Amino acid sequence: HTGAPCKPLVEVGQEVRVGQRIGETTGLGAPIHASVSGKVTAVEPRPNNSGTPVLSVVIENDFQDTPAAPLERPAPLDQLTPEQIVALVRDAGITGMGGASFPTHVKLSGAIGKADTCIINGAECEPYITADHRLMLE
Question: Is the pTM of this model over 0.70?
Answer without folding.
Answer: yes
